[in-house]
Design brief:
By secondary structure, the chain is mostly helical. The protein has five helices and no strands.
């Protein structure tokens, strides 16, 4: 199996934006049900700060992919192993940014359900994307990836 076809085997339904969006809609739907218990009073500053930080972090991640001439699309095999920039702190900085964004929305909406959806996102993206991506990266980059994997944590 070629390097590019290995990552193409990931179906579109396993793409993190679809997982993230589905969980966000579930969280928003549950949050606005009349019987849903409310959280503390709305905290615009805290939620807005987390959302802004997540947005900046995600832009930094995408910039890093661009600087290394590789695609952030998990269906594609990366052309280069990125170990600097946001990848110094997390092996999966985009997924980390997406989780922070969901948590920020939960803080903004004062919705307890977003704790659950954020944790579900982390679990699902780990099982459906991160573990298969790690196998491909190890096959493609061997010892360089294994050294990186020992040095940098999966999430943070």
């Amino acid at each position: 199996m070629s390097r590019s076809s290995k990552m193409n085997a990931v179906s579109w339904m396993r793409l993190p934006p679809f997982i993230w969006g589905a969980l966000l809609m579930i969280g928003a739907g549950v949050r606005f049900l009349p019987a849903a218990p409310g959280g503390p009073p709305l905290n615009l500053f805290s939620g807005g700060a987390v959302i802004a930080a997540a947005g900046l972090w995600l832009c930094y991640c995408l910039f890093s992919f661009r600087m290394h001439h590789t695609s952030p699309d998990p269906r594609m095999t990366p052309q280069n192993l990125i170990t600097d920039g946001p990848f110094r702190l997390s092996r999966n900085p985009i997924y980390l940014g997406m989780a922070l964004l969901m948590a920020g929305i939960g803080i903004l909406l004062a919705g307890w359900i977003f704790v659950v959806t954020t944790l579900l996102f982390v679990l699902l993206v780990t099982l459906t994307n991160i573990l298969p991506e790690e196998r491909v990266l190890e096959a493609c980059y061997g010892d360089a990836y294994l050294r990186y994997k020992k040095r940098v944590r999966r999430w943070l």
